[in-house]
Amino acid sequence: MSQIHVRAQPGDVAEHVLLPGDPNRARHIAETYLEGAALYTEHRGLLGFTGTYQGVRVSVQTTGMGCPSAAIVAEELARLGAKTLIRVGTLGGATPQVNPADLVIATAAVPNDGTTRQLLGGAPYAPAASFEVVEAAVQAARAQAVPHHVGLIMTEDAFYASTPEHARLWAARGVLGFEMEASAVFLVAALHGLRAGCLTACSNDIGDPQLVPDEVLAAGVDRMVRVALGAVVALDGR
Ligand SMILES: O=P(O)(O)O[C@H]1O[C@H](CO)[C@@H](O)[C@H]1O
Ligand SMILES: O=c1cc[nH]c(=O)[nH]1
Asked: Locate the Nucleoside phosphorylase domain: which residues (predicted)?
């Protein structure tokens, strides 16, 4: 049965799904990296494609921005039979350790968002990546000689509420950067017994409207996507 938002039939979506927020990134990934990529949905601009990478069937499905949209997409992908969800996003760096376009592999996401709060009925919870996805991503990054950070990120709702002071406070608690979907993807995946992960490329410093130059960010995004696809190949069949 087709889902309400991800208009696809069971079988259209692969077991392994990469999740960018941005539909243009979804198209770029499908066109650049997947063989035989076919568009299975464009409903609401949430573009979804399925193809193969090194012989492994992979989908790339846009989440849109923010946890409400990401939670809908993750829920519907679970209903469509997905087993591995890996966000491939951008993030605002919270600490000078994280440089423009750096790869950050999340271990967990501080849930500063309303969606996970509602799903959990306000109960305390730590939305975390699956160990095997983190391990596969780290191994892929090492194998591809891609420098990377591994650790905690924060998921938030209000992009423009964050300030450099807020970033410093959370950096002192170990947070590497902020983004807007990982906590929901981790929680929805856990509720369905799926594996989840989140890889990001740093697009700016928190509170700084200056983005990393386009070509520098695009190269960081491509490094991130290649690492995510390397992880998928390693996870396939496990
Ligand atoms: O680049 P994406 O994957 O959209 O991720 C980040 O960018 C958007 C904000 O600019 C939010 O979705 C945030 O999580
Ligand atoms: O959520 C996000 C994503 C990228 N950059 C930010 O500053 N915040």
From this structure: 16-216
Model confidence pLDDT, tens digit, residues 66-119: 999 999 999 999 999 999 999 999 999 999 999 999 999 999 999 999 999 999
180 CA closest ligand 1 atom index:
14
Superfamily of domain 16-235: Nucleoside phosphorylase domain (3.40.50.1580)
| Average pLDDT in the chain | 97
Which amino acid is residue 4, in one-letter code? I
Residue 26 φ/ψ, nearest 5 degrees: -60, -45
Phi, psi of 139 (to 5 degrees): -65, -40
Q: Could you read off the pLDDT of 55-71 as tens digits, one per residue?
A: 999 999 999 999 999 99
Atom of ligand 2 nearest to the CA of 180: 1
**Ligand 2 site, residue 179, Cβ cutoff 6 A:** yes
Residue ranges covered by each domain of the chain: 16-235
Shortest-distance ligand to the CA of residue 162: 2
Residue 132 CA to ligand 1 center (angstroms) comes to 24
Q: Evaluate if pTM is beyond 0.90.
A: yes
Token pair 């996401």 in the structure block, residue: 109
Question: Which of 67, 95, 156, 179 has most ligand 2 atoms within 8 Å of its beta carbon, as the pocket-test mutant?
Answer: 179
Q: Indicate the burial class of 1 (C-beta count within 10 angstroms; 0-12, 13-18, 19 or more).
A: exposed
Query: Are the C-beta atoms of 234 and 136 separated by less than 8 Å?
Result: yes
- Residue type present at position 2: S
Of the bound ligands, which one is closest to the alpha carbon of residue 181? 1
